[in-house]
Amino acid sequence: MTAPRARTRREIKAYRRPRRHKCWNHLVVAPLWPLHGVNLGTLLRTCDAVGGCMAVPRLPWVPEALDKGNTLRRNPCIHWTSTNAGLWLDRQRADGAYIVGVELTDESIRLADLPAARGRTVIVLGHEQTGIPPEGLARIDIAVEIPMIGSGVSLNVAVAGSLVAYKLAGLL
């Protein structure tokens, strides 16, 4: 049995980037109530990996956190929202986006049952400690939960957002 051969950077690039993505026609990862800057950098990398974009509120510390966390060689696709997340979500829905909240609710579906996105989809991520606030939950079309066996209540926002983004992109 021969050992697997790792692809070269050129092979990877040719395979993954056949054409430029159109950010508003696919996935937008939206950590609208961020607490930790390190999570934004991780989500930015995931957005690039799935061909999506990130929407973040224009808080004073967010641009620096994104600059620090950006390990990509090109400028990532970032959209700035107002600090009023509810109004931003209302505009996304009015523009035809499907809103998916990553939250534990009585109506949440399991991540495994979430179909790939068929159109522009916004993935709403809540605050690392308190989740999606009521004004955000009132605006989502569907809630998705990531089942856990361990003793923790939830996953890190960057990890949870990455799992949902991969699933909605049809890559899992």
From TrEMBL:
Keywords: Methyltransferase, Transferase. One of its GO terms (molecular function) is RNA binding. The keyword Chloroplast does not apply. Residues 38-166 form the tRNA/rRNA methyltransferase SpoU type domain. One of its GO terms (biological process) is tRNA methylation. This is RNA methyltransferase. It comes from the Bacteria. It holds the Pfam family SpoU_methylase. PANTHER family: METHYLTRANSFERASE TARBP1-RELATED, RNA METHYLTRANSFERASE.
